[in-house]
Design a protein that fits this description.
single chain; Methane Monooxygenase Hydroxylase, Chain G, domain 1
């Protein structure tokens, strides 16, 4: 029974999240839903058997959906909020600040995922020498990493676009804004960290 419950809730939650956003955001959301449902389901099973697993998978999956959905969605919402106020200094400062905050949080999430991927890849590689099942699981892990890498590269392009928007606005100003300059500098650092995370994912994939 427990083998059926968790995949079932993953499928239901991924489908639910997909109806809340455009298809272009679904892949990132699916990763969050699946991971959250699995973790929540296992924790629930340990506490309350099959009933606990169902509740845990549902709760964890919804949390995972929120993580996977929020970053891409927030970036889009930041740009929508800026629309019509592109020449307003305060709006530009808030835009850069908001994108930076979103990206910092995303980088932290990616860092945790990369550490988990690294640990699992190391364990599977040591088992793969003698176990065929481990070799198959290793290939499955590579597919997950590559999917994460693809999503990260798409997000990199969005952050670069946001940074370009802020820099372009700054170049048109006759007077300098120390606050805007500071936010642009932070955003440059956030983008560099996101690139490092992307490189780390690529390196992990190459190890397999």
């Amino acid at each position: 029974m427990k083998k059926i419950l968790i995949p079932f809730f993953c499928a239901v939650l991924v489908s639910s999240c997909a109806t809340q956003s455009q298809q272009t955001k679904t892949e990132g959301t699916a990763l969050g839903c699946a991971a959250g449902a699995i973790v929540g389901g296992l924790a629930g099973w340990a506490i309350g058997g099959s009933t606990g697993a169902a509740i845990g998978a549902g709760t964890g999956g919804l949390a995972g959906c929120a993580v996977g959905y929020s970053y891409a969605d927030n970036l889009d919402n930041r740009r929508k909020e800026l629309a019509g106020k592109e020449n307003d200094l305060d709006a530009q400062i808030q835009y850069a600040k908001g994108v930076g905050a979103d990206t910092q949080q995303y980088n932290q999430t990616l860092k945790t995922k990369i550490e988990d991927y690294d640990l699992k890849v190391s364990e599977l590689k040591s088992k793969a020498v003698t176990q065929q099942s481990a070799r198959k699981e290793l290939q499955t892990e590579k597919q997950k990493i590559n999917k994460e890498l693809q999503q990260t590269q798409q997000d990199l392009a969005k952050v670069q676009k946001a940074l370009n928007t802020s820099k372009s606005f700054r170049s048109t100003q006759t007077t300098q804004s120390a606050e805007l300059d500071a936010e642009i500098k932070k955003l440059e650092n956030d983008l560099a960290q996101l690139q490092k995370n992307s490189n780390a994912l690529a390196s992990l994939s190459q190890r397999i």
